[in-house]
Design a protein that fits this description.
The structure holds 2 protein chains of 2 kinds. Chain A contains 16 helices and 12 strands. By secondary structure, chain A is an alpha/beta fold. The model of chain B is unreliable at 1-40 (pLDDT under 50). Classes of the chains: A alpha/beta, B mainly alpha.
């Protein structure tokens, strides 16, 4: 992904969303930066291209190891490429509530990914997360079932909120931040692999591969919630984090997603898919299409277009299952700042 | 047992006259009366795992301070909690003094302490350092406490336009933020309230407004989360940890249904919680309200036993030790017991 990153925002063409439309009701808390005043539709001249793999997985008892293995193979990821690498698996762990397992990445997806990377001779595979709401990682691990899965798979866990801090230059330029503070585990990993849960998001529109990277930012620096980044703008922060961290791969848990008031209060929505790719904007745009939503209406995706990756359908080479075979309409919160996401 | 704090309370030394003013201002004497301190762990076979936790915490001290984990750089928050916990356990006065000195060296010109030594901000840990210094009752830190308290009083969380269609809380109340220049949240506000109360500023208008903010952020069904009660249409969920933090800061406040509901929330939740941070904070909060569950000690032992099977975390270990106290030394009544 690193070779696709450009650090300057290029002029683009198309309809300009109004600030009122974007900010909606009270969103000023969360959308404070340049995109709020300068958002445009994705460039019509998008030149970047990427591949995305969609695997069908009707439920969590599916053979996820085989699906992920097929996905890696389809994307051209070989044993030679994985061998010797330290792989950081970043699930989406947010909150827990009884009977609400659709909030977090399902542990079976994470364990399957770990098994595949180990089988490809990765030097180390470990799990890391820095929740934005709940400070107590161990409680979230306990209650989500992720902790037991990690233990049984003999994986280690790094609490990114309390890891050593490394200052790095901000490789993006969407926020006003000159540098970002990253956990040491993130800077020392060879590959950061995003394992998001596919959900609607009441501020960002959708949370998937790119938004999941918010969770690598250490909360001892950015707060619980990571409010210092909210003030820089959620879309802008998503873009800068992805441009700087340069995650290598995403494996999306789209088997059961969330619709409505995501990312924590929505309802389960089965989609039956595992979506994979090296290019995050391309994967996110594909997932958004599978949700029957509009990727051009999502500020961070519109801005990522042609800078971090492609989001136009004709520039994304679809592998595995076709989008149409799995497309399922997701309900999204009826709020002014989300109407472009729903295509209303 | 009565000698536990003597090593860290150097009140037998004659303070400088300029320091005396601060000592009088903040009423610096140890905030943990001997009668409140539990029997040492090594006297109690039932506390075997907590004793090991204590040993592990002591072994993790480096350069006078602690990192979140033994392999990590030292940081202010785990050092504050280790100092707080070890002060209440007694017998490690030299270690505690090293930690308090280390914290004093981290203090910046404006009185704040940054969360990690090589960054100037954020400084939400400043209140924790105040608590650690005040608990020691060591006159050497009076000036540091004064400067930190001034910084806290001058630091305000950012307000937002009140919009009940979006947020359930009163965005016009000023508390404290995690990061300077951002909105106020439960945990940093509670730390600031506790710190300023420890520093003798419990009636300061900023503290009173902080208390109102904490009450306003209580969930309708009881308990607290990080500080959002409702976003758009949905009421959010409370968590044990922030509930304990908020309740501790609200100890000795006049009776309020929101406090009672928070206590009930924790009494319902904690029997199933064994993660160190949430269990410890939950028990600290209940203890501050004289509602410590009878099974608290066995829960702490179970949590300690589990913690010993996981990679060590100084913050967790210190919180478990602090929660083992049978009373809460951070509450106002404990301070008043000492100061008469």
């Amino acid at each position: 992904m690193a070779d696709l990153v450009q650090t300057t925002v290029l002029p683009s063409e198309g309809r300009k969303l109004s600030r009122r439309e974007l900010l909606g009701m009270g969103g000023a808390l969360l959308l404070g930066g340049g995109i709020a005043t300068g958002l445009r539709w994705a460039s019509q001249r998008e030149t970047l291209r990427a591949e995305v793999f969609i695997g069908k997985a009707a439920h969590y008892r599916s053979d996820l190891v085989s699906i992920i293995r097929e996905g890696l193979s389809t994307l051209g990821i070989t044993r030679d490429e994985v061998r010797g690498k330290r792989i950081l698996l970043k699930p989406n762990l947010v909150e827990t509530a009884h009977g609400e397992s659709h909030i977090n990445t399902n542990p079976t997806v994470l364990v399957a990914a770990a098994e595949v990377f180990r089988s490809l001779d990765a030097a180390d595979v470990f799990v890391a997360e820095g929740q934005g709401h709940r400070r107590d990682s161990w409680l979230v691990l306990d209650e989500s079932g992720m902790g037991r899965a990690i233990d049984e798979a003999k994986l280690s866990f790094v609490d990114l909120n309390h890891d050593d801090i490394v200052r790095v230059p901000n490789a993006g330029s969407w926020t006003q931040l000159k540098e970002l503070f990253l956990p040491r585990a993130v800077t020392e990993a060879d590959w950061v692999v995003s394992l998001p849960k596919l959900k609607t998001h009441h501020w960002a529109g959708v949370t998937c591969a790119m938004k999941n990277m918010f969770g690598v930012m250490p909360s001892i620096i950015y707060g619980w919630p990571k409010n210092a980044l909210h003030y820089q703008g959620i879309p802008e922060s998503i873009l800068d984090i992805n441009a700087t961290v340069k995650p290598a791969l995403t494996i999306v848990d789209a088997i059961v997603g969330m619709e409505g008031d995501g990312p924590i209060m929505g309802t389960p929505k089965p989609l039956g898919a595992v979506v994979m790719g090296r290019n995050f904007p391309a994967v996110d745009a594909t997932c958004v299409r599978m949700m029957n939503l509009n990727p051009f209406g999502i500020p961070y995706l519109a801005q990522a277009s042609n800078h971090l990756g492609p989001i136009r359908e004709e520039n994304i080479t679809q592998r595995g299952e076709p989008i149409a075979a799995l497309r399922t309409s997701f309900e999204i919160l009826d709020a002014p700042h989300l109407r472009a996401v729903a295509g209303r | 047992m009565c000698k536990r704090l003597q090593g860290v309370a150097v009140l037998n030394e004659e303070p400088e006259p300029s320091v005396l003013t601060d000592l009088q201002r903040f009423g610096h004497t140890p905030l943990v009366p001997d009668c409140l301190i539990p029997a040492p762990f090594h006297d109690d076979d039932c506390a075997m795992h907590l004793q090991t936790i204590r040993d592990r915490l002591l072994a993790a001290q480096r350069e006078g301070a602690w990192g979140y984990t033994p392999g990590n750089s030292v940081a202010v928050e785990p050092t504050c909690w280790a100092a707080l916990a070890l002060q209440t356990q007694g017998g490690e006065s030299a270690r505690v003094e090293q930690a308090l000195d280390w914290l004093a060296r981290r203090q910046q010109d404006d009185g704040s302490l940054p969360v990690v030594p090589d960054a100037e901000s954020p400084c939400w840990v400043t209140g924790l350092a105040v608590m650690a210094w005040c608990l020691a009752g060591d006159g050497r830190f009076a000036a540091a406490v004064s400067r930190a308290a001034d910084w806290l009083i001058g630091t305000r969380g950012k307000l937002l336009p009140y919009n009940p269609a979006v947020f359930g809380h009163d965005t016009s109340l000023t508390g404290w933020s995690w990061v300077e220049g951002t909105h106020s949240w439960v945990e940093p506000t509670a730390y600031a309230v506790l710190a300023l109360r420890s520093a003798g500023q419990g009636e300061h208008p900023r503290v009173r407004e902080g208390v109102r903010l904490l009450l306003d952020r209580a969930m309708p069904g009881g308990g607290w989360n990080y500080g959002n009660t409702r976003v758009f249409h949905n009421t959010l969920r409370p968590f044990p940890g922030p509930s304990g933090v908020a309740l501790t800061a609200l100890a000795d406040e006049p009776g309020d249904a929101r406090i009672e509901a928070g206590i009930e929330y924790l009494r319902t939740q904690l029997p199933a919680v064994r993660s160190p941070m949430s269990l410890a904070w939950g028990l600290i909060g209940l203890t501050a309200h004289d509602t410590r569950p009878t099974d608290a000690d066995s829960w702490l032992e179970e949590s300690a036993e589990r913690s010993l099977r996981r990679p060590p975390c100084a913050l967790h270990d210190a919180l478990l030790l602090f929660a083992s106290l049978q009373t809460c030394p951070l509450r106002r009544r404990a301070v008043e017991t000492v100061h008469g």
